[in-house]
Amino acid sequence: MFKEKRMIPKRQMGRTGESAAILGFGCMRLPLKGPRPEDIDLDTARGMLRTAIDRGVNYVDTAYPYHGSARDQGGASELLVADALSDGYRERVLLATKLPTWLVEKRSDMDKFLDEQLKRLGVSRIDFYLAHNLNSSVWDKLESLGLGEFMDSAVKDGRVRFPAFSFHDNFALFERVVKSHDWAMGQIQYNYLDEDFQAGRRGLRLAASRGMAVVVMEPLRGGFLVDHVPPGPREILSKARPDWSLPAWGFHWLWNQPEVSVVLSGMTRPPQVLENLDLAGAWTDGKVREADQKAVSEVRQYFESRMRTTCTSCGYCLPCPSGVDIPKNLGFLNQYHLFDAQEARDKCKYFYGIQVDGPERASNCVGCQECLEKCPQHIAIPDFLERTAEIYSSAGRPGPDRTGGGKGRPGASRRGRPPVRSGRAPAGRRLGSVWSFCGRSSTRGTPVVDYLTQPGRGGT
Ligand code: SF4
Ligand code: SF4
Questions:
Q1: Ligand 1 center from residue 407 Cα (angstroms)
Q2: Per the domain annotation, does 146 fall within a domain?
Q3: Distances from the Cα of 367 to the Cαs of 279, 314, 327, 419, in angstroms?
Q4: Protein residue closest via CA to atom 2 of ligand 2
Q5: CA 329, CA 390: separation in Å to the nearest integer?
Q6: What's the Cα-to-Cα distance from 428 to each of 4, 303, 305, 385, rounded to whole Å?
Q7: For position 424, what pLDDT does the model report?
Q8: Ligand with the closest atom to the CA of 325
Q9: What is the pLDDT confidence band of residue 351, given thresholds at 50, 70 and 90?
């Protein structure tokens, strides 16, 4: 299936003494052979992972809920990783998985989940154990329950080699977290649109200055920087570098920063693996010129001026009790605002009608606010859904909301609903993912139009 190519360059993982290939394998968007997230196509996924390892990838990232239907249960990703890393592959990689922090109620839960994950992964030790998705809603509780002490004891008794965390919140909290413990690694959302968002470049540099490795997630912003770059920005990029693909722009911008240890890609199909391996294998320091940085800045400005939400389609806000597919709707909201032409906007409505099933529609939001606390981007979800419902009230196939069966009304005002308490999109940052516009609700893993099967796409 794959041919041999150049090995991938490695970088030091902070002060751990380990080094890792600049491309890491994220196991959250593996290929499926059925409608459920658990239905991983095992043969293809195993082949992808092993091919990447054979070409030099040595950082494998998974997490307790990946490829599961519910965030309170273990998904299928850790099990797939256990399978793929048999036959001697385990010894060739740094294995990372994550404590499901939102399920931790007491100190003993931390040990319970770690022990369960060791069993699920079929290993006696995890290299990097991350406190998953640290943000303001969980941090104080975890700190008071003794997260740092738990990490120390897990290192001491040999179940974990390096304590780490993944992060989705602002720089101020990032700074607090980084300084709270002797962390070996931090994983941040970072890409050329998010330079000043969440931990951002400041966070990257702070962590690196403390000797931490930094692993980057969302390098292509959930696929957005590949599939939904409009003609204007595309032209800016192709004029600067006719031979660079859109994934190349995303990866090169990151690899150009020495503080970045590993860039994770959640690869879904073999062609993505090949493309990303080729990009990583061809990377040499100094490749990004000043003119390239200028081109990226122009593209960033373009998007900042057009997008409405910072949604990354992470799915942490789901499930919505009313059945609204929040990331899909916010993706359509962003997509609608990318283009001025009525023709393009009509097309958005057409796709909304096809791709957003009745109960999933924004108009079914009743403003209960259950989703607000869960969103790492602090998006005012009900407000943005209200705008989405207004825009798409005339879109295609009617849902139960438009046939009397739903809880909401198309274009309804939120009058009478509880006021939104939090979740404003950060001022001056109006970026967002349109991942769902391509027909895939990333959290459900149910491709409608699976663009990832096409060659030349660069993962997420
Ligand atoms: S506010 Fe709306 S989208 Fe959020 S959980 Fe409630 S009904 Fe669902
Ligand atoms: S609204 Fe927030 S939690 Fe929901 S998918 Fe978007 S970024 Fe994630």
A1: 11
A2: yes
A3: 44, 20, 16, 8
A4: 375
A5: 12
A6: 45, 11, 9, 20
A7: 31
A8: 1
A9: confident
Closest CA to 256 of 11, 88, 444, 28: 11
Q: Are residues 168 and 229 in the same domain?
A: yes
My answer on whether 79 and 157 are in the same domain is yes
Ligand nearest to the Cα of 371, by number = 1
The total number of structural domains that make up the chain:
2
Cα 153 to ligand 2 centroid, rounded to whole Å: 33
- Pocket probe for ligand 2: among 317, 385, 437, the residue whose CB has the most ligand atoms within 8 Å is 317
The pLDDT of residue 5 is: 65
Residue 395's pLDDT is what?
74
**Average pLDDT, integer, range 384-402:** 72
Q: What is the pLDDT of residue 115?
A: 98
Could you tell me the two tokens for 1? 């299936």
Strands 19-21 and 440-441: unpaired
Domain boundary among the residues 286, 302, 318 is at 302
Domain interval for residue 258: 10-302
Which atom of ligand 1 approaches the CA of 408 most closely?
7
Residues 274 and 388 both lie in one domain: no
Residue 110: how many other CB atoms lie within 10 Å = 24
- Are 153 and 272 in the same domain? yes
Based on the domain organization, do 135 and 182 belong to the same domain?
Answer: yes
Q: What is the pTM of this model?
A: 0.73
pLDDT on residue 428:
31
Does residue 320 fall inside a structural domain? no
Q: How far apart are CA 111 and CA 154, in angstroms?
A: 8
Where residue 250 sits, what CATH number does that domain have?
3.20.20.100
Q: Is 365 in the pocket of ligand 2 (CB under 6 A)?
A: no
* The last residue of a domain, from among 270, 302, 334: 302
Q: Are residues 190 and 289 in the same domain?
A: yes
Q: Which atom of ligand 1 is nearest to the CA of 323?
A: 8
pLDDT at 431: 29
217 DSSP β-pair partners = 189
Task: Assess if residue 334 is contained within a domain.
Answer: yes
Beta strands in 107-199 (DSSP E): 126-134, 160-167, 185-189
- Whether residues 295 and 337 share a domain: the answer is no
Query: Does any domain span residue 87?
Result: yes
Burial of 243 (0-12, 13-18, 19+ CB in 10 A): exposed
- Closest ligand (CA of 308): 2
Neighbours of 4 (CB within 10 A): 8
